[in-house]
Design goal:
Blueprint (H helix, E strand, L loop, with lengths): L7 H13 L2 H8 L3 H15 L4 E4 L2 E4 L1 H27 L6 E7 L4 H11 L7 E7 L2 H8 L5 E4 L7 E14 L4 H4 L14 E4 L18 E4 L2 H9 L4 E5 H9 L4 E2 L8 E8 L8 H12 L9 E2 L6
Parallel strand pairs: 3-4, 3-5, 7-8
Antiparallel strand pairs: 1-2, 5-11, 6-9, 6-10, 6-11, 6-12
Helix pairs in contact: 1-2, 1-3, 1-4, 5-10
Length: 308
């Protein structure tokens, strides 16, 4: 019978050292001494006969072999965590707490009938509903801290069900200089004007979506703040059409027609970060969300994790 040479704790320590950028920060995060972390990683490398890290200056860097081993180790530790969560779910009839992460762009009017239907059946479960944006929504899935996630992307290795279609439009105040320019606008006309953007809630934001080339940018955390700034005649912003349609219709905001991008369309997906560990409350909430979706039927999206 095969006996493992290494332990899960050693792999978790290696992950912490890499994620924190060195032994000192990892020690603080894990509440362990730096020497114990050094010893654990050194022993791990010795047991495997493979150098995983090399220290240059005060920072630890992965070797090529270390990158491969670390990637595989993350699957290992995540699988163990999922097993433990599954055991907890099996041992209890109903979850005491359910966390639902909602991308800020998802129309809130769609979730309210879901919550009304869920409450009488919730059996006292505490429901945490948290706003997320961009990378923050992805992290809710990949880090597994939410039970259900509604967001604009489905990360690799996860399944998603499409539930809503969101259209983003560029808007500004009627008295803003952009409103007076000939339509359609060249995107270069936007460069010298203030752009209002919504803050990415991720721990490691990745600005890979949307147009972000304006010289001046102000970042806010909510749509209502962005809209208030626009109503003051400040800047332009891409916002969900359902958030600004009434203001455009009332003539309080102007919709910008930009050459090559009159609007951006996004699909919102319902994702189960840990499908095997879902309790009955999360399953019921998921079913209710799907029953209130605002789309024709789409097949579920599946993206395979590449094997190393």
């Amino acid at each position: 019978m095969y006996r493992p040479k290494t332990t899960l704790e050693q792999w978790r320590i290696l992950q912490a050292v890499v994620d924190c950028g060195g032994y000192a920060h990892a020690a603080a995060k894990l509440n362990k001494s730096q020497s114990s972390l050094n010893h654990a990683v050194a022993k791990l490398q010795s047991q495997l006969g493979v150098q995983l890290l090399e220290v240059r200056g005060r920072k630890a860097y992965l070797t090529e072999a270390g990158e491969v081993m670390l990637r595989r180790s993350r699957h290992l530790t995540q699988n163990v965590q999922d097993l433990e969560v599954l055991a907890d779910s099996i041992n209890q009839d109903w979850e005491p707490q359910i966390t639902l992460a909602l991308d800020l762009a998802y129309p809130r009017k769609l979730i309210y009938p879901v919550l009304r239907a869920f409450y009488p059946e919730s059996r006292g479960s505490r429901l945490n509903i948290l706003d997320t944006v961009l990378t923050g929504t992805e992290e809710a899935i990949t880090q597994g801290w939410a039970d259900l996630v509604i967001g604009g992307t489905v990360p690799r290795g996860f399944l998603g069900e499409p539930i809503a279609e969101i259209k983003f439009v560029a808007v500004c105040h009627p008295d803003h200089p952009l409103s007076a320019m000939s339509s359609p606008l060249d995107a270069n006309e936007l460069l010298q004007h203030l752009q209002i953007v919504i803050k990415d809630t991720g721990q490691s934001p990745d600005e890979k979506q949307g147009w972000l080339r304006a010289e001046a940018r102000w970042t806010v955390s909510q749509f209502h703040m962005a809209i208030d700034l626009l109503l003051q005649g400040l800047g332009f912003c891409w916002l969900p059409e359902h958030e600004v349609a009434h203001l455009v219709d009332a003539g309080r905001l102007n919709r910008l027609n930009i050459k090559g991008s009159s609007f951006r369309k996004h699909i919102n997906w319902l994702v189960h970060p840990r499908p095997d560990a879902m309790g009955p409350g999360s399953k019921l909430l998921s079913e209710l969300i799907l029953s209130h979706r605002q789309l024709n039927h789409y097949p579920p999206l599946e993206i395979k994790v590449g094997e190393t």
